[in-house]
Amino acid sequence: MTGAEIFVKSLEELGVDVVFGYPGGAVLNIYDALFQNTKVRHLLVRHEQGAVHMADGYARASGKTGVCLVTSGPGATNTVTGIATAYMDSVPLVVFTGQVPTLMIGNDAFQEADIVGITRPCTKHNYLVKEARDLARIVREAFFIASTGRPGPVLVDLPKDVLAGMAEYAFPKAVKLRGYHPNYEGHQKQVESAIRMILEKERPVAYTGGGVILSESSELLTEFAHILGLPVTTTLMGLGGFPGTDPLSLGMLGMHGTFRANMAISNSDVIVGLGARFDDRVTGKIDEFAPHAKIIHVDIDPTSIQKNVPVHIPIVGDLKDVLKKMITLVKGTKEAAKFRKKIAPWREQIESWKATHPLAYKQGKGKIKPQYVVEEVYRLTKGKAVIATEVGQNQMFAAQYYLFDKPRTFLSSGGLGTMGYGLPAAIGAQVALPDRQVIDIAGDGSIQMNIQELATAVQYRLPVKVVILNNGTLGMVRQWQELFFQGKYSQTCLPQIPDFVRLAEAYGAYGFRATKSEEVTRVLEKGFAAPGPTLIDILTDPNEMVYPMVPAGAPLTKMLLV
Amino acid sequence: MRHTISVLVENEFGVLSRVSGLFSGRGFNIESLSVAETMDPSVSRMTIVTSGNDQIIEQILKQLNKLISVIKVVDLTGVDTVDRELVLIKVNADPETKAEVLRLVDIFRAKIVDVAPRCYTIEMTGDETKIKALLQLLRPIGIREIVRTGKVAIARGM
């Protein structure tokens, strides 16, 4: 078999059903091998960055590993932002890049880039395949590494002569990597100490992140929280990992977290960190983070523990395993019942924070508030849509006002904060979940960063809906300028915004627009009912800001409120 | 505090840059680094001398372990070890200083491995203090160039 045939056969063997890609000189052999293949479906994107975000959205929405295939040089470098996005958010991806023939590597050949060197710091691991006979093994290893332990992107660089070369097909049954042994089992003694510590305390908070979703532990988390009556706050990445409508939910914490979540964390005496990494957008000023709290931290990645905050009880392991152990220790016990009763005043305190400082905005007649749009999207979709976002105000309003009850329904670039992520991610999610309603909540800035993928959605009849909160500005940056740079809006006004309705039509999609608050519901309904990809352009109030806000470097309690 | 970390890695291309990239990307120090094959030709050993507070060292050890190409990481600090470094020193050897150089070479059990009309090249193996001491004594005579291998270390037999 040729290397290219081995490659395609290996993908089949691994059960890969879809590849997002873009052809080019170095990968022609693969495209030739794919030409008559019926098992591996190839989706042609319009830009390689779009391919990676689609694979990412596909992976986040389905839990499967996303796959993309691009050519060498610019094809490869165009994937870097997408790879870094997936790396920061621990998304399982395998990115295949073409490469010039091995003998030409290093000669500055046409369309050559040292993509293995370039992506070394933003992949979980990467490979340059040097011989066709290594191909099947490396493909197998790449998928194994990407999807196990703390998941992440793996890049495999495929020189043209390796793809054209001949070798026998030998797909390895098992993966043997002597340097890679993720630890899944939480240490029983540590788990017991953690439970003992929680039960001793009076003001506990569970602080939960993307790890809950990645490890498929949402139900266990919900069960555990209810056994102990534990208030739960989620990070941006953790949204949907615990039901947003649950009475124990505090909503999101951090820079744009709810008042009650930030107050609860700051006043708690024990924080149970579950699959979250104490990122700076969560902790605020690190020295004043949760000054009274002991910290328990469960994470599958040992490097996450003790990186930003001192941890009293570290537990390295799969959250699923650790939560099962925790539940076994407390389920149906008298201690748990006593504890629930003991912390009742704490829950009341949190309720009163919620009552005095809820998330709020005022929607009058006329100018449309972005929060209102998100609430309407929530109401019309009955909270059941898969929501992708871009980055900025649109992302924060979506996180605050759409209550996510199920995991894998909120797709957003949390760690890297990549504008232009939402549309391709929504397309990828729609590929994974053809029967679900998938919506990208976007801004007029972000949507223009990967707007070309609308053509992909139209080509494959993927009925994603893009709700553009169009305020004519780069809203979040403008917000910082308003608050911290005396309102000097340097380069944040977008005077030249395309007519999104006509743009949608030019792509063969549907376009709708609302300019007044009274129109929002009707326009959203029309847009959602349209039988294909749709841009819904909603002109929102440019002066609206995201609150609460903890200024960068301030402690969580110093929130700017509406 | 200084730490000597012994790292077993896959003997394949790109591993050195994975390790050094980890240090540079996260702002960790490398004071010295030496790499060579072990008894198993598919495995190389890196000996890295680095410094940092406890939290930084903990991160370095964990981050090294996280690399797929890294098989084993041992912090040799606090472990009873033998450590050595090899140094080549090109030193002035004028008629009036020659005797002193030769005397020092003898005392330190070093060797002269190259002789030129106006300079000697000395080879010496030793631990850090010994090398430091010799360099200090040679400095007034005039050191032209030094080349050091970086430290290698091995735990003492039990």
Structure write-up:
- The complex is a heterodimer of chains A (562) and B (158).
- The radius of gyration of chain A is 24 Å and the shape is globular.
- In chain A, strand 5, helix 7 and strand 6 form a beta-alpha-beta unit.
- A six-stranded parallel beta sheet of chain A has the order 2-1-3-4-6-5, sandwiched between helices. Chain A has a six-stranded parallel beta sheet with strand order 9-8-7-10-11-12, with helices on both faces.
- Chain A contains 23 helices and 18 strands.
- Chain B has four helices and nine strands, in the order βαββαββαββαββ.
- Chain B starts with a strand and ends with a strand.
- In chain B, strands 5, 6, 7, 8 and 9 form a five-stranded antiparallel beta sheet that branches.
- The mean pLDDT of chain B is 95.
- Chain B has helices spanning 15-25, 54-66, 98-107, 128-138; strands at 2-10, 32-37, 43-51, 70-75, 81-92, 111-116, 119-126, 143-148, 152-155.
- The longest helix of chain B has 13 residues, at 54-66.
- The chains are: A alpha/beta (562), B alpha+beta (158).
- The interface between A and B is medium-sized, with 17 and 20 residues.
As a whole number of angstroms, the C-alpha radius of gyration of chain A is: 24 Å
Distance between the termini of chain A: 65 Å
Assembly classification: heterodimer
Task: Based on Cα principal axes, name the global outline of chain B.
Answer: elongated
Unreliable runs of chain B, pLDDT <50, ≥5 residues?
A: none
User: What structural class do you assign from the helix and strand content of chain A?
Assistant: alpha/beta
Strand content of chain B: 35-45%
Helices and strands, with pairings:
The complex is a heterodimer of chains A (562) and B (158).
Chain A: H1 3-13, E1 18-21, H2 28-34, E2 41-44, H3 48-62, E3 66-70, H4 74-77, H5 80-88, E4 93-99, H6 115-119, E5 125-128, H7 135-147, E6 153-159, H8 160-164, H9 188-200, E7 204-208, H10 210-214, H11 218-228, E8 232-234, E9 249-252, H12 259-267, E10 270-274, H13 280-283, E11 294-299, E12 313-316, H14 319-330, H15 334-342, H16 344-356, H17 370-380, E13 386-389, H18 393-401, E14 410-411, H19 422-432, E15 438-443, H20 454-459, E16 465-470, H21 475-484, H22 500-507, E17 510-514, H23 520-529, E18 534-539
Parallel strand pairs in A: 1-2, 1-3, 3-4, 4-6, 5-6, 7-8, 7-10, 8-9, 10-11, 11-12, 13-14, 13-15, 15-16, 16-18, 17-18
Helix pairs in contact in A: 1-2, 1-7, 3-5, 3-19, 9-14, 11-14, 12-16, 17-18, 17-23
Chain B: E1 2-10, H1 15-25, E2 32-37, E3 43-51, H2 54-66, E4 70-75, E5 81-92, H3 98-107, E6 111-116, E7 119-126, H4 128-138, E8 143-148, E9 152-155
